[in-house]
Input
Amino acid sequence: MTRNHKIKFFFNNASISLDNRPDLKRKINSIFLNERKRYSIVSFIFCNDQYLLSINNKFLGHDTYTDIITFPLNEEGDAISGEIYISVDRVRENAANEGCSIKKELHRVLFHGVLHLCGYNDKTKKDKITMTAKENFYLAVT
Output
């Protein structure tokens, strides 16, 4: 990873363990490289349900819980920059519902946000299939 690229982690009323952050940053960087996307700075903000619900309501007009909200902050044609908000409460619940580890579900959600910044969407059934396949690929190779 070059010095021009920055991946930052922030914790807002959320307690979660991020083991081996340098390795996680390398994995995130590899997604951008594999997707042939330039990025400058990506911030991950870990929060609780209430905080993310307030963001969802204020900025997207949705009054529902969600596990992730991604905000691209770059202009078209510029290197990618963005903020990715993650509800630790949702990650824990999703992991329990899926029968997987919190770490695996956390990585899935992190990669999901990065894929959104790379231009992937999940609004249609076809888009969801593509997004899930990408997530599974990056979970397997990273």
User: Anything to note?
Assistant: The longest strand covers residues 39-47. The beta strands are 6-11, 39-47, 68-72, 80-87. The two ends are 15 Å apart (CA to CA).
